[in-house]
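Hi everyone,

Forwarding the result from last night's run.
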Amino acid sequence: MGVLNATNILLPLLTIPYLIQVLGTDTFGLLAFATAMIAYFMVLTDYGFNYSATKEAALNLDDPEKINEIFSAVSTLKLILTGISFLILLLIIVSFDTFSNHALLYMLTFTTVIGNALFPIWYFQAIEKMKIITYLNLVSKIAFTAAIFVLVQDKNDYLWVPILTALGNLLTAVMALYLIFVHFKLKLVIVSRIKLYQYLVEGWTVFYAYLFSNLISTNNMVLLGLLTNNTMVGYYAIADKIFSAINSISSPILSAVYPFMVKTKQQSLSTFYRFFKWLTAGMLSISLLLVLLLLFYIDPILYYIAGEINDTTKVTLTILSLSLLLTNITPAYIQGLVILDRDSDIIRVFKHTFLLNLCLATPLIIYEQAAGLALAWCATIMGQAIWLYVAFHRKDQ
């Protein structure tokens, strides 16, 4: 998981400086806006299966028929949700000039959703066998990342970016499916509508939580684009890319321990709480180290990524870096609440989080633009962390 995540972190950091230099901040901002828009559909097609399906599969690894059912149901539902997403995208494109003017860009960017939907990473997490899939991911993504430097030579070549990104995702997904059918001997089986509905219900809480979580970050980027311009989106996107890369360094830990926590809770609730306490303390320590490193090296990092130290980007990144103390903790609490079947708490927390962000983002963007959006994000994450902590440690658990 660490190597897989490092690939997803380092490869974009190699291409971003090149893309900013070749395409300019304005076109780079347009690509970032399109990616943020398509992220809505990524959330819809994921539907929380990376947690609900991983949890279900981890508890049924000794039952091949059940595993086949889970795989078939999740695959079917993801394809259905992908089709619905594409229809929604077409409706948006034909309805708004902002999107119809760059229709091809949005259509090409959407193909990453298809690759993501086909890639059953949840299964490999459940069986705790990520090594082979990591090698496949490395080969495909390195190849298509290298192709960006060859094919993108000026502003007119910007469409190659979503094309090559999508091809990398699709190739990884195809190779993963080959392993599942040939090596792990899984089979597609017919799943009844009642069963499909049950899996939808099981994934609903996590989907709901991550829908609002991603709506916050995606809405913020879209709002910034609508209220300012592509250049301002570009400045914010540079800061956000750096922040997201550093923020995701610790996420493999949570992904790797999730199946273990599921099994631990089944065996001993007290052991689960004890392990969770050590996990969150460790995540907080890692987060503090990341904040200090980012603030100390912020100038050389910005100069490497953007080729300059822009005041707007620097202030935005400085503000975002402060939220690192909490952004690595909140996913741990979400996982803990999922394992404890505390669905209502998760839904309530994300309702409050979304409303808080909605109240803060628009006025702060209007008054402070990119820096204002970063302030809104930090305040939102702080509120979310407090609500999650209170929910997890309630006395009536």
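The radius of gyration is 21 Å.

Cheers,
N.
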